[in-house]
Specification:
translation release factor activity; EC 3.1.1.29; 3-stranded antiparallel beta sheet; alpha+beta; 5 strands; hydrolase; peptidyl-tRNA hydrolase activity; Double Stranded RNA Binding Domain; 16% strand; elongated
Length: 140
């Protein structure tokens, strides 16, 4: 069991890992080994995730989510397969934690106070008089 939050845990049997060849630096080593990890997690069918978290997770996943509700994460940052596996699992856990946090309440707009409105208008009139004084003098 992978502990995500105090309420949510994921069974390791729900994760499906496949290994592919990674691109990038590494020379001949990268051409021979399958060090990149493709982690698949079926969000839609997971019994361990509450429905509201599932909904937010599917929204957060974006293009990483297939039409069947499977989340696909590809980790090929490191040259080691083991480090890529850990990286993919950590990214999945972070994504689920982000989805588990409830969204903040919507912002309620407030009105400016009378004093702040008056200060703003006073500043504008002062600035206006300064600019009027810059004009050319009369030819008298």
């Amino acid at each position: 069991m992978i502990r995500v939050t105090h309420r949510i845990s994921i069974d390791e049997s729900e994760l499906e890992e496949s290994f592919v060849r990674a691109s990038g630096p590494g020379g001949q080593h990268v051409n021979k080994t399958e060090s990149a990890v493709q982690l698949r997690f079926n969000v839609a069918a997971s019994p361990n995730i509450p429905p509201e978290v599932k909904h937010r997770l599917m929204r957060l996943a974006g293009s990483r989510l297939t039409q069947d509700g499977v989340l696909v994460l590809v980790a090929d940052k490191h040259r080691s397969q083991m480090r890529n596996r850990v990286d993919a699992q950590e990214r999945l856990i972070d994504l689920i934690r982000d989805a588990a946090a409830p969204p903040p309440p919507p912002r309620r707009p407030t009105k400016p106070t009378k004093g702040s409105q008056q200060r703003r208008l006073d500043g504008k009139s002062i600035r206006s008089t300064v600019k009027k004084m810059r004009g050319r003098g009369s030819d008298e």
